[in-house]
Write a structure and sequence with these properties.
It is a single chain. The protein is mostly helical and 86 residues long. The protein has one domain. The protein contains 3 helices and 2 strands; from the N terminus they run ααβαβ. It is globular, with a radius of gyration of 14 Å. Bound molecules: zinc ion. The site of zinc ion (ZN) has 9 residues, from loops.
C-alpha cells in the first residue's frame, strides 16, 4: 500500500473515532518512544499488556463494559478489551 493510500485509510478510520479519544491517543503517543498506546486486556491475563501492572477486578469489569475510556494509572495506556476469539 502506498503512503497516500495509508493516509487515506487512516483518515477514514479517524473519522469514526470520537474526538476526545483521538486527543488522548495523540497526547500519549507524543510521549511514547515505543509508539505503543493501547493496552489490550484479556479476561484471563488481568494485567496491563504494556507495563504488566495487575488490574483490580472492578477495573477489569469497567474495561469489559467499554462504556468509557479508561487509562492505566501506572503507564497511561488506553485499555482495550480483547475477546478471546479475536
Ligand atoms: Zn500500564
Amino acid at each position: 500500500m502506498s503512503i497516500a493510500e495509508l493516509t487515506a485509510r487512516r483518515n477514514e478510520i479517524m473519522a469514526t473515532v470520537p474526538k476526545a479519544i483521538l486527543r488522548t491517543y495523540d497526547y500519549i503517543l507524543k510521549r511514547r518512544k515505543t509508539g505503543q498506546v493501547l493496552s489490550f486486556v484479556k479476561g484471563d491475563a488481568r494485567t496491563c499488556s504494556v507495563c504488566f501492572k495487575i488490574l483490580e477486578p472492578q477495573l477489569i469489569n469497567e474495561i469489559r463494559k467499554g462504556a468509557k475510556m479508561i487509562t492505566c494509572q501506572n503507564c497511561g495506556s488506553i485499555f482495550i478489551w480483547k475477546n478471546e476469539d479475536i
